[in-house]
Recover the amino acids of this structure.
């Protein structure tokens, strides 16, 4: 059975030493109640609860899966009780609006608890996560009456939420959905249509399930400008907040999937189900994107959580497993063989995974800080900068962390050899479960186009320049720290590469409408690698002065150099791919494929 | 349900236009019976049989899996009948020694039929494959009486074979196995021990199962120099060839795995089972390596077969699925959306997979030609050159084709978005099934160390120089073909990079015992990429004069350029990683991990 210990030491280093979270919070009235003691207590309890209660259900949940029973979906043994405990612990509302019963903690805290939860059990994590995302979209777009009725129940875990976007013929392209909404005299709507891939569309964890559904009003414009958002509860809610009659929304079936088998992925049939408009007519997609953006950072954290678990299990195996001898002579002559750890190639795999994990954790915190600034910044300038950075970095956080998290799980699985392929060791489940994070909430290709198109080309690189100012100010601060000259050198080269790629992308896009799409994925990976170099340099700066006090800091610097020397050079390969331009793909006629 | 059509056009191009197989065979008395008509007929029948009979069992076999029933293992429905037909079709002995009932066809033919078989059903493929490998090891090491008794029955498919190496504590490190062999008065041995991960260790497809087992004789030297190889049949064989009493070898359990679920992966208990020595005492590992090397090319073909299926299904989906609009304006205005194929990023994924597949197919043929030369070459010079190239290229063929085949399956899965994650589409099974090819028959890390250590450093780069002579002679032939100057330029740079990496590896290895292991995987991937550049240039040379006759040839040249521009530049990243040297891994103390 796999092991897991929440990486609290590393989280504290990132939060308090790299980002100086205490100072950030002390300077912001919105976080007057937040201090290090509180956050330490939250992290300790998150670690304890998830390690003891949620993590053991990950393997059993995968083996048992979900099943349709009549009109509901039965989750695996233990999920219902664990969800109750999770809700009672206040975890669902941890980062939510205090007005609706949330605890109002910054994203810089919930990013850490999300990583722990996703590491322990991604299938379980999706049930509360979807509710939080739905509530977030509502809190910014729904009218007050709806919010007061629904949000406290979602944050308390009595009810849960879903996002109903995809239809059999419409996934990425939501402009062509067919689900329709008929206005009724009482200001409600009757929703009719079929939605697929609905995570937590039906389950037995909560008394009610609140669906946020994209649908089209009569006479709505075609395409994505004619989509509205509706709230459709499984059970109608009476005026006193009690549950009323069953609504006409039912699970048709559940999908049989590669992984996250304990998460119910449902076909949902809306047969004139009663719903209420959220936000303005025909502006549903904008409202849904509030939710999507929230989920997107979480999908990155899913990748990170999994690769942290993968690292810990691969490292434990490499320490224990005796196989072969060190090339420099037996290290454990009293035993039949040396531990796997004596072999450089085993270390290469472990260090590559770990260098990813630690950079990803830092990057998630960087994006979280920007998210907090966008929402709670003390000046409009702060908030605008936060919004711009969030817009730029969210697709990177979603796609790069999930792509590299998947690769890291595969690499960690390799450390176990044949045992990595056997179910009981849990490594293959990590690979299967993490694969979905590259696909859902907008495939990583879609994330890359969002980055290259909407976030770079549309504003002619303005967000990138804003980001590069941040990096350059870090570089300027390094001039007084000669021990970090190697970091400074690598990061400077990386920044130049990102600038070159950005300028190239802008030039290509001006000349050819296909250029953004052709360059997007390589540009996103290049951007992610440069951001990791940025994160490693930030961590190095925080570590360098303490390296005499604790080997932890010295090893931070060493792992950072490992990243710079062995992983960062991939940016040149990505740049070369971008240079080849769209003609390399478009010259082939359709019948070639 | 997934689709598959054997890529016969591309196979014929590689065999007959790139490698001019007819001329090769005509010049070799061993292949006097082999001509194009025969091989065409074999390919057609292989395609028909595998597409119609073997491929449909791939999904159902995955769903049903294997199960232990008493003393045997029940394979999924349809496997038994399909195996009977496969055997009766003569496929098991296709490349086998005519003396024992085989058909003696060159590897240049069976590499193609192996790709088709592995593409259609890797679980099924393993049952005959293990028998063929076992028979091959026997034919080169066992005494004539054993061979006459066993080999014809294996080639006819009446019996099957296994390789029993791994024990619970001994995988890569076979030197520490504990299974022991006690000599008996009648020249037989009693074998006692437990073997794990035994593919096809027990099943219901054949009347007898012939195990090749590594074990230690009393007083044998410790380590890998004290290992002997034994033949242990499930049923003892009477003097007249009929089956006698049940031997004391039994399945303990089967593994629950990530994939290849229709392949029975068994724990085998040998409780004083009667066996016979194959080859010389204490030289079992050498005999087993005959089998291992045969399997290793096959594992590369497994990766290629899967990524070909993955390509075909992703391309079909991209043609059919309507989603979004071309950036240059609607291509199918009469429909709700354009096909996925209008998007450059979709094409990027398809072309990357396809550029891998076509290079891999060519490389497998290149290695097969060397294998044929090593065995049937008309002069000892030819045979020696063949052996040297096979020694050098086998680890590349195994590891690079399986690593890139896995990546290709993941990339093709991504084309299908959410549907790629759903079992019924079959893409996720390709990913799960292909993952094992990176692990078994020696992990890809072990392959890389074999390449960098035994095949490069041990002979101070002699095999690499031999290979580079081949590449340089191709480059020389291009000087008269100005249309191929871009290929020539890219390949020249690639060759320089491989030389630089090889020299660097030799220098590092002279200075540090850890250097080989530290550089190995990056060196192997660099080598593989350079070999693919070599293959693409060979294909371009064969295609260039015919490009006016058929778009097939023009597209070959274009896809080759796609590889050179977008995929080959990774060699620089790999070289940078090698440059960082072993200290980057070894500086961390064991407790760090």
């Amino acid at each position: 059975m796999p092991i897991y210990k929440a990486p609290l030491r590393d989280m504290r280093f990132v939060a308090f030493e790299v980002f100086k979270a205490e100072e950030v919070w002390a300077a912001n009235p919105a976080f007057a109640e937040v201090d290090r003691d509180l956050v330490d207590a939250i992290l300790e309890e998150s670690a304890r609860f998830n390690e003891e209660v949620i993590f053991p259900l990950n393997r059993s949940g995968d083996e048992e899966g979900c099943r349709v029973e009549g009109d509901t979906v039965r989750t695996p043994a233990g999920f219902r009780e664990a969800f109750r405990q999770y809700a009672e612990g206040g975890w669902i509302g941890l980062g939510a609006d205090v007005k609706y019963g949330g605890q109002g903690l910054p994203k810089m805290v919930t990013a850490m608890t999300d990583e722990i939860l996703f590491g322990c059990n991604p299938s379980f994590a999706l049930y509360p996560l979807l509710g939080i995302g739905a509530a977030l979209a509502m809190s910014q777009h729904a009218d007050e009456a709806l919010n007061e009725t629904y949000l406290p129940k979602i944050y308390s875990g009595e009810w849960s939420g879903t996002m109903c976007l995809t239809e059999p013929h419409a996934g990425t392209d939501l402009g062509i959905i067919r689900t329709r909404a008929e206005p009724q005299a009482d200001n409600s709507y009757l929703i009719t249509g079929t939605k697929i891939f609905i995570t937590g569309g039906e389950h037995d964890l909560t008394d009610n399930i609140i669906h946020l559904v994209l649908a089209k009003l009569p006479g709505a414009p075609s395409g994505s400008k004619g989509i509205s958002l509706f709230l459709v509860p499984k059970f109608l809610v009476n005026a006193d907040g009690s549950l009323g009659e069953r609504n006409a929304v039912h699970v048709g079936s559940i999908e049989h999937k590669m992984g996250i088998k304990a998460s119910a992925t449902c076909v949902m049939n809306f047969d004139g189900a009663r719903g209420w408009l959220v936000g303005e007519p025909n502006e549903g997609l904008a409202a849904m994107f509030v939710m999507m953006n929230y989920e997107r950072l979480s999908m990155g954290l899913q990748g990170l959580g999994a690769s942290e678990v993968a690292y810990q299990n691969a490292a434990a195996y490499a320490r224990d497993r005796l196989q072969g001898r060190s090339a420099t002579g037996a290290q454990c002559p009293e035993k039949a063989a040396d531990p796997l750890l004596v072999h450089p190639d085993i270390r290469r795999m472990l260090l590559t995974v770990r260098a990813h994990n630690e950079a990803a954790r830092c990057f998630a915190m960087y994006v979280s800080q920007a998210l907090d600034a966008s929402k709670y910044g003390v000046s409009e300038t702060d908030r605008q900068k936060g919004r711009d950075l969030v817009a730029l970095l969210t697709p990177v956080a979603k796609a790069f962390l999930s792509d590299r998290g998947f690769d890291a799980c595969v690499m960690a699985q390799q450390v176990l050899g044949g045992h990595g392929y056997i179910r009981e060791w849990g490594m293959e489940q990590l690979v299967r479960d993490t694969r979905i994070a590259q696909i859902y909430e907008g495939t990583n290709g879609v994330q890359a186009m969002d980055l290259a198109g909407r976030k770079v080309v549309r504003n002619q690189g303005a967000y990138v320049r804003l980001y590069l100012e941040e990096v350059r100010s870090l570089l300027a601060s390094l001039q007084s720290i000669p021990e970090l000259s190697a970091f400074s050198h690598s990061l400077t080269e990386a920044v130049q590469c990102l600038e070159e790629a950005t300028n190239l992308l802008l030039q290509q896009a001006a000349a050819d409408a296909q250029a953004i799409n052709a360059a997007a994925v390589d540009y996103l990976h290049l951007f992610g690698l440069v951001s990791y170099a940025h994160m490693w340099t930030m961590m190095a700066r925080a570590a360098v002065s303490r390296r005499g006090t604790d080997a932890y800091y010295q090893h931070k610097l060493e792992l950072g150099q490992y990243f710079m020397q062995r992983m960062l050079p991939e940016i040149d390969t990505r740049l070369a791919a971008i240079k080849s331009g769209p003609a390399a793909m478009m010259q082939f006629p359709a019948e070639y494929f």
